[in-house]
Amino acid sequence: MIQPAKPDLVTVNIDGKEIAVPKGTNVIEAARLVNVDVPHYCYHPKLAVVGNCRMCLIEMGMPAVDPATKVPIMDPATGKQKINWIPRPQIGCGTNVSPGLHVKTTSPMVKDAREGVMEFLLINHPLDCPICDQAGECKLQEQATGYGRGYSRFIEQKNVKPKRTQLGPRVTLDDERCVLCSRCIRFSRDVAGQDVLGFVDRGSYSTLTCHPDKKLDHNYSLNTVDICPVGALTSTDFRFKMRVWFLKQTNSICTESSAGVNSVVWSREGVIYRITPRRNDEVNETWMPDSGRVLYKQVQSADRLKSGTALDALVAQAAAIFKTSAGAISVVGSGRSSVEEQFVTKKLAAALGAQAHLVKRVGEGDKLLISADRNPNTRGALVTGLISQLPCAELKQLSGEIDSGKVKTVVAINEDLLAAGLTAAQLAKVSVIYLGTHANATSAAAKVVIPTVTVFEKAGTFINQQFRIQKFIQAVPPLSGAHNDLTALATLSAAAGSPVASELGTLWPVIAAEVPALGTMLYKNIPETGLLLDSTPWAGLPFAEGETLHFKPAAPAAAVTA
Amino acid sequence: MSAPAQQRIIFQHIDEPGYTNDIECYLRNGGYEVLKKSVGRKPEELIDEVKKSGLRGRGGAGFPCGVKWGLVDRKSGKPIYLIVNADESEPGTFKDRYIMHQDPHQLIEGTIISCFANNVKQAYIYIRGEMPEGARILEKAIAEARAKNFVGPNILGTGYSCEIYVHRGAGAYICGEETGLIESLEGKRANPRIKPPYFPAVLGLYQCPTIVNNVETLCQVKYICDVGGEAYAKIGTPGNTGTRIFCVSGHVQRPGYYEFPAGTITMGQLLNDVCGGPLPGRTFKAVIPGGSSAKVLKFGERYKGKRKVGADMVDYDWGVEDVPMDFDSLAMIGSMGGSGGVIVMDDTVNMVEALANINAFYSHESCGQCTPCREGSLWMKKISSRMVNGDARPQDGALLKSVADQIPGRTICAFGEACSWPTQSFTIKFKDEFDAYSEVKKTLPADRTVLV
Lengths: 562, 452
Description:
The complex is a heterodimer. Chain A is α+β, with helices and mostly antiparallel strands. Chain A has helices spanning 27-33, 108-123, 139-147, 183-191, 222-227, 311-324, 339-352, 378-384, 396-403, 417-420, 424-429, 441-445, 485-495, 504-514; strands at residues 9-14, 17-22, 57-63, 83-85, 90-91, 102-104, 165-166, 171-173, 197-200, 207-210, 233-235, 248-253, 262-268, 271-277, 329-333, 355-358, 409-413, 431-436, 448-451, 460-463, 468-472, 531-532. The longest helix of chain A has 16 residues, at 108-123. The two termini of chain A are 33 Å apart. By secondary structure, chain B is of the alpha/beta class. Chain B has three domains: 23-234, NADH-ubiquinone oxidoreductase 51kDa subunit (Rossmann fold); 240-346, Ubiquitin-like (UB roll), CATH 3.10.20; 351-443, NADH-ubiquinone oxidoreductase 51kDa subunit, iron-sulphur binding domain (de novo design (two linked rop proteins), Up-down Bundle). Chain B is 38% helix and 15% strand. Chain B contains 17 helices and 13 strands. Chain B has helices spanning 23-28, 33-38, 43-53, 65-70, 96-102, 104-117, 132-147, 178-185, 215-227, 229-233, 267-274, 327-332, 351-365, 371-391, 396-405, 415-429, 431-436, and strands at residues 81-86, 122-127, 163-168, 210-214, 236-237, 240-241, 243-250, 256-261, 284-288, 297-298, 302-309, 312-319, 341-346. In chain B, helix 14 runs antiparallel to helix 15. The longest helix of chain B has 21 residues, at 371-391. The mean pLDDT of chain B is 94. The interface between A and B is medium-sized, with 36 and 33 residues.
């Protein structure tokens, strides 16, 4: 584990509580550290400050000192240093802490300011909360309750703005609900790098729209929905599908690439309705690609593999094949398997005396949160020892061994061997034992098919491009007729003569004992934001990934003269 | 006591018969002589003259020009820009347009001198979008000046170069706010920036140190560099030096623009002696002394307190007519001198309707960036509009006041004050009219024109 550097601290006073925070911390963040909520709409910890909603107004003061001598001026009433309070409220989001800063978040001036801003925000806002899709997670709703006056004096005609505007393929805008905080504009311009959104018209008639001839169609467009504090920007896919308070939230990891984006899976009664990003300041901040959110649809897709046969019976069939092919077996593991599954895969391969391979899955990175390595767990395979080199293209080695007759049986774990580079002729030469989630050419040709579960139907860990081990939790029950990967692999390994635990709690001590990089670790002790491992043993490997958010490739080693 | 005489310095040639806006006429009248004199001096000497002069900005806030120049970040290594704020859009104010239309070279000379003093190589004249003729005149004047080596490379052979560009706005009042102006100049929506950190003197145009000065202010600078800061400081009154241009509009017999030593003329002298007093048979009811955003003054009310005269604190007890027309006196009685636009209303004016007009303007001009101004200005407008169109309620005056109180001090820029001060002052000082306006709907004729 690598310890983060200690920050430069300053002492500030928030509502009478002293706290030491890193210098330059935003007042809203500093208040959060003492459990004080400073309400806001336009402020976002990962976006530029614009201070336009005016909801985070606070009272600010600095300790009084004599201008000439710099000697503190004491307050006779309290015996402490006198505080010079600024007569006007200041925005918290536009204020960074400095030594001695004093903040009041509950003074009469602040209360009056917030009530005024809240009243203004509501006067042109539709008051149809019961039928709004943002109900249950709306900041306007929450802060109107917490900071508003509880009644309205507005009797005029409300402004009416467009509804159901399709801004892009995945985002629908109900502009009548917009509070003009501009978070979406700043995100699109500053984070996603595509300046497509803007306001037209002026004053209270300002309307959010796309620039002429542009659409909100970049692969991060759904982040604008996440950060919209009200129900203006909605996901076309999720819109009016489910009330959020009915949904269970489960922490997970995106498997789209080795970036290892932290996510939350929202589900109810075994059905997943949406995926949103989960904040990890070291990995994905608060963002997530759109393409990573649609992965949940695979759970319910029509081509899921399922079987009416018991796992033991399937394993018995595989064991029979193992017996007849002894010494001529290969295992194709998956970069999409979890660390635990890869560990057991290694056990299985060892028991079979089989060479283990991994499918290479390299594409183009987007410099943000999709890395060039589209396997989420290549580093897990290295750390567990399933592989010792990076996977080669098109399973070249295995391909040669099949042609030469050296390999007669292949255990394929959730990888379509045809798509991975084998030919149909080669596939016909071997007996395939396939463990996977969805039907494909390999599962069709396999002699034994063991249906397994998706990442959403199990728990485990992945190691991302940073060599950070991160945990994902089971979100929904497994599909009926599918088997847990770990259980299936462990049962196969036992059948091959090498029993291994199949439950995370009992397996992890074994992993910790046998995998040096994971020593002292237990599944339940891995924090939600993951742990950085020591990547020194693999520093020389030519990883595919280029720079993305929070990741820089290691500098190439100096040339060695042989 | 009769009014003092006008002292036309900036407006010396405005409306002068035979005076034309071309450079030949300007040169015949001593034009660009101050520039020649100034580029022969050290820049810091010129800044010092401006500081000594006590010149306060003529755009509205009255901030001392020399102090403003002193705040410019000269150590950043970035270029310093100067922007001439010619976005004259405050209702009631119409002085800058006459300078630009009739005496544009005065502005150009003042601009170049100010650029020289501050080591500025590029200046922009940001002119209001609705002044296309003014823009054309300025472009022509700059071309004339460039032809004679007063603008452009190697000015007057000194080695100093400065370019001036004219940039037309798109017709938004908010572009008169300095950071909104800068945003517009950069090609963005004119959304004022938050301060801190975006103080123009540090992070202005293209994130470089920037000076934003009013048209009249720069003309005053030219005069200061001519006669010297000390001589300039003798004009007017202590703390309010130089001349002040008043644009008087509304119900007086002689509306127009007048230039007086600052603080030497009272409101009563200006309106009665200079402007001929109220129209026949009428009496003055109210006056807005510094452009429509300033708080209204009600004739008949009295202002009492202590004020500084020399080294002494002296009691004052003034009616509207007694108030000296300077920044500090008007601030003392609860209003402001602003840009010098004096709007006069006599007893024919219904104050509810006058406020409705003002509120309509400000809600239209709100840029929409921050909540209190965006929603508050429109809300005030809607209340006012409903009132004057026949559906007033007795409590509407109090509601207007309360809404207005929720705006100032909580917005990103001073527009919040600009749009709320009229409502605050009108509803307090003319409370009777607002409270009684609910009776008006009973008497409105059916064919009455819908107001605002």
